Amino acid sequence: MTRPGRARVALLLTVVTAALLTACTGTDADPSRADATPTTRPTSSPTPTPSWPPSPTASPTPSTAAEIAEAVDKWYTYGGETAVVSLIEEARNAESDRPREAFELVVLDFDGLTDALGTARLMGPIPDPRTQTAWAAAIEHLDGAVREVLASVPKDGRTIQSPQETGQMLRGWSTFDEGIKSLKAAQALLNRRFGLKPSVDPWEAGV
């Protein structure tokens, strides 16, 4: 049984659309393949990701630069670093299964990313408004991307996506890219503003 908060979202995907390849790789689409659509088949039924209640903010709210720096350091030390690194690693894992070539057979499994998003929410906000804005945007975009891509999977037993479903999947991966940009921005702000960074760069570590 799937435990609460865990979405089992693996799906089987055969890529056959030139439009998809253009969106994923930035190469020019072949007009002769413009009407092709990717094959998708879910290996299990996706479970809606629950809404996580925000963690209570410590009181009083830090206001001076020194207080903010101290609060951010505590956030990072007591779970924040783990949440950031985990989200980066799982986002990279999900992206590694992204279809990039025609007739490529891949299995997209967002299970780990869904867990990492849940952990990130449970950590509560980063006590620095600028960094929190980027962090919140990363969570929102990555969560939205997972939902969008899963929603594009045919629900009636078909193995070929309709043009509308293909477009929805492409929008999902575009949202995913926005999430990656925000995640990188949040990590850069933690490093530049507060000198906080993991011992091993999760963007460079092997997946």
UniProtKB/TrEMBL annotation:
Residues 26-63 are annotated as: Disordered. Residues 34-44 have a biased composition (Low complexity). Keywords: Signal. Residues 45-59 have a biased composition (Pro residues). The keyword Lipid biosynthesis does not apply. Residues 1-29 form the signal peptide. This is Lipoprotein. It comes from Streptomyces microflavus.
